[in-house]
Design brief:
Elements (H helix, E strand, L loop, with lengths): L1 H21 L10 H17 L2 E4 L3 H22 L16 E3 L5 E5 L11 E8 L3 E5 L13 E9 L2 E9 L5 H15 L3 E7 L5 E10 L9 E4 L9 H5 L4 E3 L4 E5 L2 E5 L3 E4 L3 E5 L9 E5 L2 H24 L8 H20 L3 E3 L5 E3 L1 H8 L4 H4 L1 H19 L7 E5 L13 H5 L8
Antiparallel strand pairs: 1-19, 2-16, 3-15, 4-12, 4-16, 5-9, 5-11, 6-7, 6-10, 8-9, 12-13, 14-15, 17-18
């Protein structure tokens, strides 16, 4: 049991300390065993020929290695998301969607190939959004509390689990002091209920509780319940602060797709395993929303804009380290070489490289090219460029350490190289920094 607890602490540290660096995880961050084996084999193969280096272990270098690796990962995910079934020959072929009311709903296409059974368009009417439960307590003046000094406790029932909270009331504690203490106590517990203070027009404050989840499940009418009827310490705090009073009951999202009524416990759901929807507001009178797939030409135009956004983000992130990590110039030169190779052909379709290495798009020219009869073939250059960028992103992700300041200690014996698995973490840029 002690080993399990220690392992859980390690995972907790990883997610809290380094998860923000990882950005948003997507389905492209999960891999088959064969893919992971291929990455490991590539690292081992690289270690056979590479010299032994003395690495700079400063905090700045560690942060740079992790940042560069994550930036390359994000660029890989951006390019991968623009293809069907993650096949390189399908780059920029991902379908995109149109939505007649983007203020009411966000839509993304998450399907793969289009066939005769695919839903290419549908009609949506949002009758009601899914909402959370809210409890608003009694508004009290900021003066000494009427509760006598003691140790109090109360229970919060969430998802068939009972959580007990204990707190002390001192001689000179005011109502607001105690309310602020309870806000911190509840929010630090991460039980799925968030606490805050709200004011009225007279300056009184009340403790407000809100469920993190929305909707109704298993026939229940509430998300959580607050009580001190059977608590272990002194009771009376729940009634005094009024935090057991439900002021807004949770509701499910209710909507109609092509006239068929449906509901969801959240405002985020999928349709036909192809459309990812996030509801933002209910439809007005006659507020029918049309959703469907754009044409191939419109989709590739959207994909180009998304690709350029991901590429520019990668370049800007690398440029931030030009002064602190001089070897970053090597990466910028490599990316510049890509721009020279494809610059002329991309310029013909309205995509140009700026002096800082980022890309700019002439929307009017791209649209003009897209309107040609042979539009798809005109975008062959950008597909080739995307493939080259993907290969470079894979290379950087595999070995970000090549762009750090490092000194050669020893070269391998030519013709008699061997794998050195104990230094593979140096090339992954992960164990080097304690990142994973």
């Amino acid at each position: 049991m002690a080993d399990i607890a220690s392992l859980n602490n390690v995972y907790d540290h990883l997610t809290t300390a380094y998860a923000p660096l990882m950005g948003v995880n997507t389905k492209y961050d999960t891999h088959k065993k064969s893919e992971l084996r291929g990455v490991y084999n590539s690292i081992v193969e690289k270690s056979k020929e590479s010299p032994i280096f003395l690495l700079d272990t400063s905090r700045e270098t560690k942060n740079f290695a992790v940042s560069l690796k994550e930036s390359a990962r994000n660029l890989k995910n951006t390019i991968s998301s623009l293809s069907n079934e993650n096949e390189e020959e399908e780059l920029l072929s991902k379908k995109t969607v149109y939505c007649s009311d983007t203020d009411a709903v966000d839509v993304k296409y998450i399907g793969d190939r289009i066939d005769d059974k695919s839903i290419t368009s549908f009609n949506l009417i949002v009758d009601q959004l899914a909402s959370s439960q809210k409890n608003t307590g009694t508004f009290l003046p900021d003066k000494e509390t009427d509760l006598p000094p003691d140790t109090y406790s109360f229970d919060v029932h969430v998802k068939d689990t009972e959580y007990e909270f204990q707190f002390n009331i001192g001689e000179n504690d005011t109502n607001k002091d105690i309310q602020e203490k309870l806000v911190r106590l509840i929010n630090r517990s991460n039980i799925g209920v968030k606490a805050s203070l709200v004011d009225d027009e007279r300056g009184n404050t009340a403790l407000a509780l809100e469920s993190e989840e929305t909707g109704l499940k298993n026939g229940s009418e509430i998300q959580f319940r607050v009580s001190d009827d059977h608590t272990s310490k002194q009771n009376g705090a729940v009634e005094y602060f009024g935090i057991d009073r439900v002021t807004s009951h949770p509701t499910n999202a209710e909507f109609r797709i092509n006239g068929m009524e449906s509901s969801s416990a959240t405002n985020h759901f999928t349709v036909a395993n192809s459309y990812d929807l996030t509801l933002k507001e209910a439809s007005g009178e006659g507020g029918s929303i049309n959703i469907g797939l754009k044409t191939d030409v419109e989709s590739i135009t959207d994909n180009i804009n998304y690709l350029i956004g991901g590429y520019n983000s990668f370049i800007r992130n690398a440029a931030e380290y030009l002064e602190s990590q001089p070897n970053t110039k090597a990466l910028m030169r490599e990316m510049h070489a890509l721009s020279l190779r494809y610059g002329e052909s991309l310029g013909k379709i309205g995509i140009n490289f700026k002096d800082d290495g980022t890309m700019d798009i002439d929307t009017d020219k791209v649209q003009q090219i897209a309107d040609d009869e042979d539009a798809l073939s005109n975008f062959g250059a950008i597909k080739s460029f995307a493939t080259s960028v993907l290969n470079k992103a894979n290379e950087v992700s595999l070995d970000p350490m090549q762009y750090t300041m490092r000194k050669v200690v020893e070269y391998k014996n030519p013709g008699h190289t061997y794998a050195t698995p104990y230094v593979t973490s140096n090339y992954s840029g992960m164990l080097f920094s304690g990142y994973c």
